[in-house]
Amino acid sequence: MNNALKGALLSGLILPGLGQIALKCYIRGGVIILAVLGCIATLVVKTAERALAILEKIELEGSIISIATILDATKQASVTSGNSTLNLLFLLIGVCWIAGTVDAYILGRKEDAEQSSS
51-55, 71-75, 106-110: which range is least confident on average? Predict the structure, then answer.
């Protein structure tokens, strides 16, 4: 398998930045991996905060916690609260994923060209 395909597959299918690391561009790959993992960690924290806020609201209202009350509270929270932070995080992950895959492919092509010329 040539380097371009290997780098693109690793970054595109497993984790962005992994293709760069396989192609020995450690700093570039590490930055991409840290960016993606940072966005994912922030998404998890924000989602947990929203879930806890919904449960607190249900408890303050004195409702019995059931699937129906959780679904109703979740619907109300998704309508009333802004999702701009979550949307931005998903966008950043997508951009990092695409850029990482394309970059790994380009790096692999350069490496393949150097190997074939020597």
Answer: 71-75
